[in-house]
Amino acid sequence: MDVDIHESWKTHLKIEFEKPYFKDLVDFVKTEYSNHSCFPPGKQVFNAFNCCPFEDVKVVIIGQDPYHGYGQANGLCFSVNDGINHPPSLINIFKEIEMELGVPYPKSGNLMRWANQGVLLLNATLTVRAHQAGSHQNKGWEQFTDAVIQILSQQKKNIVFLLWGGYAKKKVKLIDGQKHKILMSGHPSPLSANRGYWFGNDNFKNTNLWLNNNNKTPINW
Questions:
Q1: Is 65 a catalytic residue?
Q2: Residue by residue, what is the 3-state secondary structure of the chain?
């Protein structure tokens, strides 16, 4: 695995890349991709960063694991490639946006259009073995992505952090709530949504209100 990441991030993450845990992680990922089918494709592992340069970040959405089915994962959390059926969580995200903002349900589940507007779509774990959810957890990715969240919190201001579900909510301790806006909700998965923890959260509307109030262009969700 080459660390093929946008130049703007290299400056801020150089220290992480040089740490022993990251070198071990690179070795692990290289071995996994050599011996198993893994996702996303190697060139898309750092897609979240390459589609959203450091200076452009104004919203962060935190996911857990890439999708582990063929053709789904493209390096952006909750996102799938064009032409791929929308997974249940993504369906519920689009339904919530439709209810909040009246935006028609989109054909494509590819969230590149969000990333290009400054939404960092960050999975806590950036790779996974095919059909084995969580197979690359606790190998170093979480240490790396926690560092990303902390660096953003420390070095930028007025970012909106969207923390959905118990796992993402634990990341609140990495974020300076005095400098940034933190919006929390249940997870968009059917289990959580059907229990009433997702729909009606107004996260997308409130994100745009915050951006507007801080002289930033709202996201075209």
A1: yes
A2: CCCCCCHHHHHHHHHHHCCHHHHHHHHHHHHHHHHCCEECCHHHCCHHHHCCCHHHCCEEEEECCCCCCCCCCCCCCCCCCCCCCCCHHHHHHHHHHHHHHCCCCCCCCCCHHHHCCCEEEEECCCCEECCECCCCCCCCHHHHHHHHHHHHHHHCCCCEEEEEHHHHHHHHHHCCCCCCEEEEECCCCHHHHCCCCCCCCCHHHHHHHHHHHCCCCCCCC
